[in-house]
Amino acid sequence: MEEKKDYQDAYEKEHYKAVYLANRVAELEDQVDDLQFKLNRIKNNPIWKASGPARKCMHFVIRQKDRLKNCGSLSGVIAKVRYKSWEKKAMTHYGTQSFPSAEERQKQEAAVFERMPKISILVPLWNTPESFLTEMIGSVQWQTYKNWELCLADGSDDAHAYVGEYCKRLAAQDSRIVYQKLAKNEGISGNTNECYKLASGEFIGLFDHDDILHPCALYEYVKAINEKDADFIYCDEATFKSPDINKMITMHFKPDYAIDNLRANNYICHFSVFSRELLDGTELFRTKFDGSQDHDMILRLTDNAKHIVHVPKLLYYWRSHAGSVAGNIEAKPYVVEAARGAVADHLRRHGFKNFTITSTRAFETIFKISYEIIGEPKISIIIPNKDHVEDLRRCISSIVEKSTWENYEIIVVENNSETKEIFSYYDELQNNPQIRVVTFEGKFNYSKINNFGVSLATGDYVLLLNNDTQVITINWMEELLMYAQRPDVGAVGGKLYYGDKTIQHAGVVIGLGAHRTAGHVHYRQKRENLGYMGRLCYAQDMTAVTGACLLVKKSLYEQVGGLDESFEISLNDVDFCLKLRKAGYLNVFTPFAELYHFESISRGLDDQGEKAKRYNEESERFRNKWKAELEAGDPYFNPNFSLDKSDFSLRV
C-alpha cells in the first residue's frame, strides 16, 4: 500500500507539473504573438526601412569584432587566412592534377618488378549508391599496376538489387573482379571477413565502398614492397566533398609509423595494404569492434609487421557525405566506444594494466592514455643557473608549491653568478632538504653543466629543466614519468608556452628552419589551438624534444653519453634525442605536462655577434654529424610539408 501511495504522489506531482508547463507555454505563445505584431509595425515604418544599410554595416563590424576576439588577435586572423588560402591553392596539386600523364601511365603499366604480387582489394558492399559504386570500381580498374583482384561481398537489401546486377556484369567481363551476394548483411566486420574468404592474393588491401583510389596507388605500394620489403603499407589521404575529388575538405599528410600516435588516434586508417601472412591464425575484422574494426586490425597487424612503410603521397580519397563517418561522427556513435575498446585490448596485449583512455578536446576518437606509474621512482631535477634570482625563484616555487609528485630532488647547478641576491637565495634554499646547490667551475657550457648535475643526481630519472620555466600542470612530473618509465621510451618532453600563452615547444623536427638543423612545430600558435589534425591534443612520438624540460632514465642518459659537450649552447638536446633514437628508443612529446618557458631570459638570443657565429658553427657540426638522418628527413614530419615553416604548410 505504501508503494502505491508513493506512486500516486509522484504521479500527481508530474501531472501538476505538466499542467503548469502547458499553461506557461500558452502564455509565452501569446507574448510572442504580441511581439511579432509590434515588430511588424516597426519594420513597416519608413524610418526603419531607410536605416537598413547603416544597420547592416554596424552588425558586420560587431561580427568582425567578435571574430577577432575569438581568434585572439588581428595577426592571428591574418595568419589563419593566409594558411587557408595557401592550403586551398595547394589542394589543386593533389587531386586529378596529380594523376599520371599518358606517358607516365604507359611507363608504370610496363614496369616489371622482381616481385609482382597479386593484391586482393576487399570491399564490403551495402546499399551502395550507384554513382559511388561505379566510381569506386572504376578507380580500381584504372590502376597502373594490373595484378590486382577486387573482392566484393554484397550485403545489400532487395531494394538495392542494382548493386548485384552491376557487379555480376563487370565480373563476367573482368576475371579479376570476384563477386558474392551474401545471404544476409553481417555488418562492416562480417561483410569484410566474407570478402577475405574470396581473396587469393599475397597482399590484402582494405577499401571502402564509397571511396576512390589514385590511379598510381597500387604501383607505389608494389614499389615499396620491392624496395623496402614492406609487409604493411599505408599512404596519405584526403576527405572530399562528393562527388568531386578536387573539392577537398581536408588533406591528411601522415607521419611514418608511430606507435604512440596510433594508440591515441587511428592516423593510419586508409589505404592499408598488408601481407596476408600477418593474418595467419588471426581474424581480419573482429565484430566486437564494429565501427572501429580497422583501428583494432591495424594495431594487431602492425604489432606483427617487420617493415611498416608509409608512402608519403596522397593516394586515397575518402568521400564525405551524409551518414559517413567522414562526414559526421554522430552518424555512428558506437565508433567511439569501439575505438576505446580496440586501444584497451591492444594495451593489455602489451602488458599494460590500470590505464585509462579518455576522449580529448580534438575529437571523441582521439584519446589521452594515462598509464599506471609503477612504484615511486625518484626524479632528479637539474637546473643550471647564473644570477636571475627572480626567474629561479619563480621556477623553484612553482615546483614546490604545485607539484603533486613528491619523490624528487632539485639540483641547482650554479655557474658564474655575480649578484648578492642570488647567493642570498641559495642560502634560503638550503632550508629545503629536497634542494641542493652545487657549483660548476668554468665558462658557460650547457652540456657540461647538465652532465655535471646529472653525475651528482641520486634519482632514477633526471629531468633537465631551464631556470626560466614555471609549472602550470600540477601533475606534470607524473605525465612525463608515465612515458619515461616504458622500456621503449627515451626522452619525454612537455608542452611549453611563452608568457603570452603562445606555444614555444610542442616537439622538435629535424631539418626544420633556416639552418636546416631542427625547429619547433606549432611554434607561436595559441594555447587553445588543436594543432594539425589534432596533434596538439595527444601524446605522440617525435624525433626530439627540448632540453628546457626533458625527462629520461638516468641509466639511459649515461648509456648514450649524456649531452655532447662539443655543442656548448645549442642543439645539444636534439643531438641527445637523436642518440637515444639511434640506440633504439622512442622520444615522446606530451601536451599534458604544461609549463611556461620565458625563453632566453637568462642568456639572451643567439641571433647576433659572437652568439650568432657560435650558433652557425654548432649548426654546421650538427649537419655533418647527422647528415644521413637529415637527408632521410624527419620520420614524424611528412615530406609534403615545407621545412621553412612550423605550421605544417604544404610544400608546393
UniProtKB/TrEMBL annotation:
Residues 120-279, 380-558 form the Glycosyltransferase 2-like domain. It comes from the Bacteria. One of its GO terms (molecular function) is glycosyltransferase activity. InterPro entries: Glyco_trans_2-like (IPR001173), Nucleotide-diphossugar_trans (IPR029044). It holds the Pfam family Glycos_transf_2. This is Glycosyltransferase family 2 protein. It comes from Gallintestinimicrobium propionicum.
